[in-house]
Write a structure and sequence with these properties.
Elements (H helix, E strand, L loop, with lengths): L1 E3 L7 H9 L2 E4 L6 H11 L2 H9 L8 E6 L2 E8 L6 E7 L8 H15 L4 E4 L5 H8 L26
Parallel strand pairs: 5-6
Antiparallel strand pairs: 1-6, 2-3, 3-4, 4-5
Helix pairs in contact: 2-3
């Protein structure tokens, strides 16, 4: 999906909502990297953890985390899968539906906008309706599986399951 960064919603309303429910969204500290990667691997997948690790190759890290009562409840990354890509992102099951995912998404998109991007790409889209409602994301025709295909790895050389 494609997002016009020059038309994304302001952060203020979402920030206020997060404050009322006790959620803080911020960039992780470098010493939190192992904890974040372990959490992403445990709650989502190894491949997402590997993508998330890339966020720590730059300063500040190209990711945000959501915390409630000093407990990690969500994360979102950008410029990890590819430059100008949003994702991966995820929120713990019990914390979904409260606006945490929206706050993480907007935090990343505003950082991308501040970094000079005019558009962002959301690759490997799961909840397309969410992205369309939250930031006006539009489908990019013919882009699936796109970069998420095997790329340089020839499928016939992969081990049989």
């Amino acid at each position: 999906m494609l997002v016009r960064l020059y038309e994304i919603p302001d952060l203020s309303g979402t920030t206020e909502k997060m404050e009322t429910i006790g959620v803080r969204v911020r960039r992780p500290n470098v010493w939190e990297k192992p904890l974040l990667l372990d959490w992403v691997k445990a709650h989502f997948s190894l491949s997402w953890a590997l993508e998330c690790e890339t966020a720590f190759a730059v300063r500040p890290p190209s990711c945000f985390i959501a915390m409630k009562d000093d407990v990690l409840i969500g994360f979102a990354c950008y410029d990890c899968t590819r430059l100008n890509f949003f994702g991966p992102t995820g929120v713990a099951d019990y914390a979904q539906g409260k606006g945490v995912g929206t706050m993480l998404l907007l935090s990343c998109l505003h950082a991308m906008k501040d970094g000079g991007y005019a558009y962002a790409i959301i690759g490997g889209v799961g909840p397309a309706g969410f992205y369309a409602r939250a930031v006006g994301a539009m489908a990019i025709e013919g882009s699936s599986p796109g970069i998420y295909d095997f790329g340089l790895i020839d499928k016939k050389h992969l081990p049989k399951p």
